[in-house]
Specification:
Creatine Kinase, Chain A, domain 2; 7-stranded antiparallel beta sheet; globular
Amino acid sequence: MPIIHFNSSPRPSIGIEVELQLIDPVTRNLVSATDEILTKYPETEAFFKRELIQSTLEVITGICQNVEEAEIDLTNKFQLLFEITDKLNYKTAVAGTHPFAKWSEQTVSDDPRYHGLVQRMQWAARRLMIFGLHIHIGVSSGERAIAISNSLTTFLPHFLALSASSPFWDSEDTGLASVRSKVFESLPTAGLPYRLINWGEFQRFMNTLETAKAIRSIREVWWDIRPHPAFGTLEIRICDGLPTLREVLSLAALVQSIVVWLDRQYDRGANLPVLRHWIISENKWRAARYSIDSEIIIRDDGRLQNLRDSITELVEELLPISQELDSEKYLLGILDILKIGPSFQRQRKVYEETGSLVKVVDSLINEMRLNQLGAQP
């Protein structure tokens, strides 16, 4: 069996990947412009990346040691992006889905990997007109990554609820806070991670899938949380795309603080808190449907807690760690999201007030450009 090496990260470093939408300035529909941007500005290919469809551009940070470094990194790259898209006459926005674009009209990026994926997955891949936020946190070993990942699943509803930004799909209000999470789950290797015993079992699992030609590489396992052996990180992938940099950094601070918190418990030999898989699955559904207003299951006997209250208690628990990590102000931004409301609520409010999905896109464009929750045109 081939050995999968986990490249140790000595510190809980941060890497952030933001998938954003390229928008036509007139129609406010998605526009296939990724190739044009990367062709005219090839120097950006180190940190602007193609995704499955050509209306998606991914912005990637370098390896950051704290959230403040990530803020500087993304601020500079977003500013460069704004300068480029202004010259080319495009707009940008971030949300889990576009309110009225049609997946059937999207162009697949000219990359053999993506065309191979569509050929194998067909409809499930073709309709992946979705946009997410991925947060990497450095971990020192594969064994530790598996233990922390198992426990981190308890907080997947928290991450999804706070980032929920996809209430609309194909001009319809789905009634969900995050339809993106449901669309993504249609892929056979996406969704909740399997609960694995140790790093050895992770290697056996991945080698089995590759040998069976279910996947071509570990990159094709799109779990909500996955170890990334090459980077030496845990990658949290459950989040919808977040419209503002403020929200991105708040989620990054929350994720980093939880990983450090669990890592220290692991060092003490404590049993890391783990809920049963079916409870995690139910809680994820509730977060996708109701976001921060859901009642999540917190014990095997079915005891419930309001997710908003759970998030508030979690922030309070993590404050001392965030202070050590110099990320307290970013972590406290989570409370701003609770107060103002996640993106899906803000989008619905715009639609209720205007009756226009174009105005919803306008609001997303303005939130990103102004870095302000609830910014209006």
